[in-house]
User: Which sequence fits this backbone?
């Protein structure tokens, strides 16, 4: 996230600001803690215990700095960013209640500062205004993502209602060649905004299944099937990488895979509202579409090396788990449309048909070169066949990726192995028929 220009940190460190400015010191250490928690590659696993111990120590130090009897009375942008990085640390630790608390704290500080109000930018320096615009834009984006991932309550409707793109366009572009790489980060933020600009209070209310609880329904209390179809078609279109985004880069991976995840979440929202039907006139509202999304997602993953994917940490693993789980549960709910095939790919450390021993796989199971896809057995899948018959191949590729990702040291390998073990593709594909009146109502665990 391009919260600030790198020169802002470098110049202030050279001036020794962290030695006398408690807020800036807390910000620096929060960035260090987040970096220690976040980007852990498979080859770093032997160093993981020491690294996490250091991260915990730095996190405790930041928590002590980021407090006081008058905390919040006169906040700075540094305070907002520190709370945000503390949110990131708790997210990486899988402490989502603590993460939600820190994110609400960051949003409350932002509200006190008036970051969402253009009128508050009148009497500050251009550089300070730039940092504020960057901060509120990035937070509004993350708020939308987190609201979908973890059902976070909207603490600040003004941020959720913020028109992010005009704010994003106010961000100052750098002029020096040395810092031109930051323009790519700003451009990437704009692309990410484009992928979540549809998320508003109505979408989040529907996602949390609270739309039916409105005592006096508004004019449009639900997300309509037409809107969901329109959004699914919008995000189906190929991503235009543009001149700023390097193909195969970590930023490219983040943007492209988030795009596929958004498609999966939109389809899931249609599922929750009973719009999914095997005989729907719109292909986007059929069960097979979830399989198509999963297939395109894992194919996209194969274009990036494993270190590139691991850079984004457990947040990316969670998004991929959401996509793959949608595919698996649809296969289980619609056995007639998934074909009578059995999982046959041997995954090291996994006994056939069993989820026993679901811990991280041994480091000798795979050679961790950069091309993870080259280590996955080649499937003789007929990609011209109906989407449903491809499900085993798709899910096995996801399983292989989850096993390779940080050598399985993340929270999503074990539940995915258990989910796969629960699937039964041995039934006769003609044994179940669905009528046009049948809609699917299956609660999906996110």
Assistant:
């Amino acid at each position: 996230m391009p919260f600030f220009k790198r020169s802002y940190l470098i110049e202030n460190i050279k001036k020794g600001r962290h030695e006398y400015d408690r807020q800036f010191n807390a910000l620096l250490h929060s960035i260090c803690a987040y970096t220690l928690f976040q980007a852990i590659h498979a080859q770093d696993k032997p160093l993981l215990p020491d690294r996490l111990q250091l991260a915990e120590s730095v996190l405790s130090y930041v928590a002590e700095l980021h407090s006081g009897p008058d905390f919040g009375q006169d906040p700075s942008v540094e305070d907002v960013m520190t709370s945000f990085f503390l949110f990131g640390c708790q997210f990486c630790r899988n402490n989502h209640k603590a993460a939600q608390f820190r994110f609400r704290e960051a949003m409350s500080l932002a509200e006190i500062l008036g970051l969402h109000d253009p009128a508050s930018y009148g009497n500050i320096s251009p550089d300070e205004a730039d940092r504020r615009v960057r901060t509120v834009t990035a937070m509004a984006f993350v708020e939308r993502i987190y609201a979908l991932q973890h059902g976070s309550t909207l603490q600040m409707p003004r941020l959720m209602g913020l028109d992010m793109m005009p704010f994003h366009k106010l961000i100052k572009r750098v002029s020096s060649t040395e810092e031109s790489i930051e323009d790519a980060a700003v451009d990437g933020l704009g692309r990410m905004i484009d992928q979540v600009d549809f998320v508003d209070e109505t979408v989040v209310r529907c996602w949390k299944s609270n739309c039916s609880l409105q005592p006096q329904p508004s004019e449009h209390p639900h997300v309509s099937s037409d809107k969901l179809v329109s959004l699914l078609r919008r995000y189906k279109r190929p991503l235009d990488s543009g001149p700023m985004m390097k193909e195969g880069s970590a930023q490219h991976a983040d943007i492209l895979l988030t795009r596929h995840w958004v498609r999966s979440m939109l389809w899931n929202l249609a599922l929750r509202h009973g719009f999914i039907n095997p005989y729907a006139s719109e292909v986007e509202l059929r069960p097979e579409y979830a399989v198509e999304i999963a297939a395109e997602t894992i194919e996209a993953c194969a274009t990036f090396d494993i270190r590139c994917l691991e850079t984004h940490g457990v947040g990316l693993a969670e998004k991929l788990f959401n996509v793959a789980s949608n595919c698996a549960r649809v296969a289980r709910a619609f056995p007639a449309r998934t074909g009578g095939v059995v999982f046959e790919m041997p995954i090291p450390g996994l006994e056939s048909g069993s989820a026993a021993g679901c811990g991280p796989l041994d480091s000798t199971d795979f050679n961790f070169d950069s091309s993870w896809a080259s280590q996955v057995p080649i499937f003789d899948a007929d990609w011209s066949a109906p989407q449903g018959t491809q499900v085993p191949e798709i899910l096995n590729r996801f399983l292989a990726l989850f096993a390779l990702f940080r050598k399985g040291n993340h929270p999503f390998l074990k539940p995915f192995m258990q989910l796969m073990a629960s699937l039964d593709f041995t039934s006769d594909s003609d044994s179940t028929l669905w009528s046009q009146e049948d809609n699917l109502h299956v609660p999906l665990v996110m």
Remarks:
- The chain is about 50% helix and 0% strand.
- Residues 126-150 form the longest helix (25 residues).
